[in-house]
Amino acid sequence: MTPPRHIEAGAYYLLTRNTTQRQFWLKPCAMVVQVFGYCLAYAAARHSIDVLAVCVMSSHFHAVIFDPTGQLPRFLHWLNQFVAKCLNVHWKRRENLFESRQTSVQRLGSREDVERFIAYCILNPVTAGVVPRSKMWPGLCSR
Questions:
Q1: How far, CA to CA in Å, does 65 sit from each of 1, 44, 124?
Q2: Residue 27 confidence (pLDDT) above 60
Q3: Number of CB atoms found within 10 A of residue 118's CB
């Protein structure tokens, strides 16, 4: 069992989650964009999380969030569970969508860190060499 995370109300975080075996279960199609976008918006509203940036790549996602009330664990549980349920139905599969390791949660300490990781999220498709410009990425990406 992993030790509990230290979650602080009023903190900014970078979140990263990989799919199982880095398979392309989050590939940029209309259904993935719609499902992930809906689940993210619903989970954020339900748990009072502010989503500052998000980028869903084919095998992982990144998000920069602000957690004013310390609800990050509940937010992540809901988001991961319902994205997996919806996309498993869509892909007609029953296995784990996300890898067994928990979501990577990195606390961002300064305004510069927050700004740097917002840029990191938005530019992830470009950095990965998938598209020449971020706005060309057909998947879910805040710009």
A1: 26, 9, 16
A2: yes
A3: 20
